[in-house]
Design brief:
homodimer, 333 residues, alpha+beta, seven-stranded mixed sheet, five-stranded mixed sheet, 8 helices, 25% strand
Chain lengths: 333, 333
């Protein structure tokens, strides 16, 4: 064990993320994947220029505001579509920041030649999802670009919400528990299979859903922080949290819920479900004594090594669960 | 004169806009141009589905919110760039709704292969324009699409502001005056010439600028309504206002300020500057007795014919200034 531990620490010393810098010459697909390249772009270029933190919903007074672009391909997939995703993705950013979603704006970039029926279906999906999430769509914009300069339609939604008075977030601290609101990997795998690039057929539907009800049920003084595990999956969320709070996270792989069909597809394709995008699952870091029925307790916050996420495998070993490199699943949201 | 008047009324009877319906089979460029096709799309499909008015900044409590997508081509043009436009366009929607701009979110859709220097320049342009407009950039998102599925970058900005207590908007009524904050047509013509599709060289720079200072200086009880004259130009703004308030507008062509270079380019290309997009000009409908120094008094609100805009030409005749049909200037913002 000693040898294994010290080897892990060696790897860590090498891999420990420095403050990301944006030195790339050109944008590539990995910059949109939610992993290391995205961190370089966001932390190395956008945050310094804008003087802010782009990850979370921001607060203006007690109003929380968040924005998200949606470029998912295909537009419709088992369990949802771009319109539904555009609502849920944005209201969920509000929810995990402890803000009850109130209103949305919708900005559409349409490709010349887009079938009216496709557009109508997505407008309907936006409206239905907004109703289900309990938010009003209060504003919008539409632009059209020439054929070939978009993929049907891209949607940007911006959500505003009101910070819930029960919120008292604080940085994760050693001893805290790492909870997951549900089984992981469904959304990303549903999209991948829907593209038909793999000769694999599995009954997997996206988990896209509004998270406010689940957040509402658990909000309280023991909740340190919540994050929806979208692009880059649970692994990316935990890495970001560990890095920003300068703590370590230890995840017990056997406690991470993955539906059998998702686990099977991931194994066949050689993909770790911890890196696969979800659209209806969030990570909550909570006080050691907090009990949250229905959530999976997947690990805990540790002191060492700061900034790193370690996984205890089913075989009892440990490995570093680093940030995503490259983009195994482009355009999943 | 009697014959001319009755012919105008005949045209009006034929042209009078019914409630727009969206019956198109496919999206075409005109749906993004701000004219009749855009009205059909917005009023015929989006507003009924979302149960709201998409044109203005919406109010949630005393917070105003508005969103805009920017797909301008080329990315840089005389007088500005997409990043600057994305800030000014959105803060101006807030300003003309009587809301002091407070904060912005920025959503980027990047094309794979985009040069980092181009991105850096636009990030800088966003930051600089936000600082000049007095707003903080508080949130953002970045997505990447494959090469050929966007034109470098598309930006959606969403702005929030606080409604100014001096605002007491009311529908335009007969006798009100139609004011313009500055000379028209510069932005659209600057973009057109920058594309190099015409063998025409003229010293025209975009008028992109934040409008809040000008709005701030004039806000008061006599201001009925303000609109920035972007896509579709002053003609589209006046048509929308006439239609929604069920009044007529009479514009005196000789009173409409157009810079000589813009007027010359418009004449050579056969374009009416009243339909050309502006990014730093707004229309204000004000009470008959209100004096606003520096604004051009271009006409007045009339009773008949309701829903229509008439132009008194320099030769003393009148013609209908209808909504834009088709898209003479695609992707100007």
């Amino acid at each position: 064990m000693a040898t294994r531990e010290s080897r892990v620490l060696e790897i860590i010393e090498t891999a420990r993320a420095k403050r990301a810098k944006f030195r790339d010459d050109r944008i590539n697909m990995a910059h949109g994947a939610g992993g290391k390249a995205t961190s370089r772009l966001v932390e190395g270029l956008l945050q310094p220029a804008f003087g802010m933190d782009l990850d979370d919903a921001a607060l203006v007074g007690d109003i929380a505001i968040t924005t998200d672009a949606f470029v998912v391909k295909p537009l419709r997939f088992p369990g949802g579509s771009i319109g539904e995703l555009a609502v849920n993705g944005t209201v969920n950013d509000l929810a995990v920041s402890g803000a009850r979603p109130l209103a949305l704006t919708v900005s559409l970039i349409l490709e010349e030649g887009l079938e009216a029926d496709v557009l109508k279906a997505e407008v309907e999906a936006l409206a239905t999802a907004a109703e289900r999430a309990g938010v009003r769509i209060v504003g919008g914009d539409t632009k059209v670009v020439e054929r070939g300069h978009a993929d049907g339609l891209y949607i940007t939604t911006t959500g505003i919400g009101r910070r819930d008075p029960r919120v008292s977030f604080s940085p994760p601290r050693p001893g805290d528990r790492v909870l997951l609101s549900g089984p992981i990997g469904a959304h990303g795998m549903a999209i991948m299979l829907a593209r038909g690039e793999f000769e694999l057929d599995a009954d997997i539907v996206s988990d896209t859903r509004p998270l406010w009800p689940a957040v509402d049920a658990m909000l309280g003084p023991g909740v340190r922080v919540m994050r929806d595990a979208t692009r880059g999956g649970v692994a990316s969320v935990l890495n970001e949290l560990a890095r920003s709070a300068k703590v370590a996270m230890l995840v017990r792989e056997k406690n991470v819920p993955v539906a059998p069909a998702v686990a099977g597809a991931c194994e066949l394709l050689g993909i770790d479900p911890m890196y696969v995008a979800n659209e209806g699952v969030f990570v909550a870091i909570v006080a050691p004594d907090m009990d949250v029925p229905g959530f999976a307790d997947i690990g805990e916050v540790k002191t060492e090594p700061p900034g790193m996420v370690l996984v205890e495998t089913s075989f009892g070993g440990k490995r570093v669960m680093d940030e995503l490199v490259g983009d195994p699943l482009p355009r999943i949201c």
